[in-house]
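Chapter review. Work through the record for Copper amine oxidase before attempting the end-of-chapter questions.
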Amino acid sequence: MKLKLGWKKITAAALVLTLMSGGTLLFADSIQDRIRVWMNGQELKDGAYLIDNKIYVPVRDISGATNWNKSSGTLRIVKPNVHIFLFKGDTAFGNVNRGKLKFNVFSQVDTLHDDVEAVKVAIEDPGGSIKDIQSQSNIQGKDNFWFRTYDFTYDFDTVGKYSVGFYIKTSAGSGFEKVAEKVITVLK
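Structure tokens for Copper amine oxidase:
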């Protein structure tokens, strides 16, 4: 089968392709650079972009609880100041040896300017498994508070870094998101 194309059709197709690629080139020119972003010693997966001398970082990569409301077109980011202390009896600790340990977690929270549904403390092992320690609801109206868990026993069975996280649930329909963490290193 022979394909006959006239020079007018070829010229029109070339013009359309040129215009389409020109629009793409104009968009590409406005994004000047892709930027590598490091937060707390770890590189963010998607990085950021420099557009018109402004840096844009994906919100999902920012540490904090987020609540996107599509109908109102608003994004709420909740990031209070949280200090986490680990206690074995009355003694604070950080690093431990392998084995079972009975301890509690003390979290000091301030500058929580938004009402939240609940908070919780959980521990993540080096393999990524998360175990909830304790949660509390009815946090509305508290911008400065302490949250201390009951004593519990945890088996640090693997050498490596464990993360004790403080999580916030912004609304009844949302999940918990980590807003702060304390690292426990299991030495041997």
